[in-house]
Amino acid sequence: QQQTYQIWQTTNDSSALSLYAEIMAEVNFHNVQRFINGDILLVSKHSKYRDESDYDKNGYIYSIDGKLKQQLLLGDGVANVQVTEDDIIWISYFDQGIFGRYSSNWYDLLGSTGLVAQDTDSKRLYEFEPSDGLYNMDDCYALNVSSNTATYAYYFYNDDNYCGEFDLVRIQNHKITDYWHMPVFGSSAFIIDSNRAVFDGGYEHRTLFYLIELQEEHQARIIQRIIFEYDGENILKVGEGFSYPWARGDSFVVNKNSHLF
């Protein structure tokens, strides 16, 4: 059925929200990004394949006045989408998109590597390929495209002993430049600056954040546990109004009981 989507924004470092655009579509959208010219990218995480000439293009580019300008094929199982200031689209995938568990008719799984970058003409600019010491992605849990040249991805993999582990990898100018074995499992978002990072608590502690030191020889350690409160209440308290945090650059965003933190 046709639905109405409203895109809201903050401006000039103000806490006030203003309506940026209103779009009507018969699609379930899960991600929103903005291009440098003001156009809006809305993404559905699913793309159904019927045959080689009949499949869902699940990336939709709209003008600010709500007119559909272009559709892109991004593949099934999209986890996160972040667009750079140069309009490069970074796309991460969860296991459905990597292995095609619920879309076995896809003859070419676009998200099989777990992380890709492409332009608005659908030209692939980067696909994740593990360097020495790393494994293939089984599920990309969190993405942070911190600049035009730096991207960080946090992902799950099965090692040679078939034990699930998580790594954080840094990609600069489309090349892997470093990685760390992470002590946090199942986080949904993180921020990073130099050799420090903050991750949400993941599977073990959904209601707090971890401050993590990124060390040499691909190691990392938790150095502090953090709880953010508003009016004396933990903003990550599981229950009514709970929302997983998401992040970009050096900022977390949390939606809790009609408040945006």
The largest sheet is: 4 strands, antiparallel
| Helix and strand element order | EEEEEEEEEEHEEEEEEEEEEEEEEEE
State Rg: 19 Å
Low-confidence stretches: none
Task: Give the strand order of the largest sheet, numbering strands 1, 2, ... along the chain.
Answer: 3-4-7-8
Termini Cα gap: 31 Å
Shape: globular
Total count of strands: 26
The percent of residues in helical segments reads under 10%
Strand content: over 45%
Mean pLDDT: 90
Q: Based on helices, strands and strand pairing, what is the structural class?
A: mainly beta
With helices defined by DSSP (H or I, 4 residues minimum), what is the helix count?
1
Task: Write structural notes for this entry.
There is one protein chain. It is built from one helix and 26 strands. A hairpin with a 2-residue loop joins strand 23 and strand 24. The mean pLDDT is 90. It is globular, with a radius of gyration of 19 Å. It is 2% helix and 48% strand. With 261 residues, the chain is an all-beta fold. The strands form nine sheets. It has a four-stranded antiparallel β-sheet with strand order 3-4-7-8, with no helix packed on it. Strands 9-10-11-12 form a four-stranded antiparallel β-sheet.
Short description:
The chain has 261 residues and is an all-beta fold. The chain has 1 helix and 26 strands. The chain starts with a strand and ends with a strand.
Secondary structure: elements and pairs:
Elements: E1 3-10, E2 17-25, E3 31-34, E4 40-43, E5 49-51, E6 54-55, E7 59-62, E8 68-72, E9 78-83, E10 89-93, H1 95-99, E11 115-118, E12 124-127, E13 139-145, E14 150-158, E15 164-172, E16 175-181, E17 190-193, E18 196-200, E19 209-214, E20 220-226, E21 229-230, E22 233-234, E23 246-248, E24 251-253, E25 255-256, E26 259-260
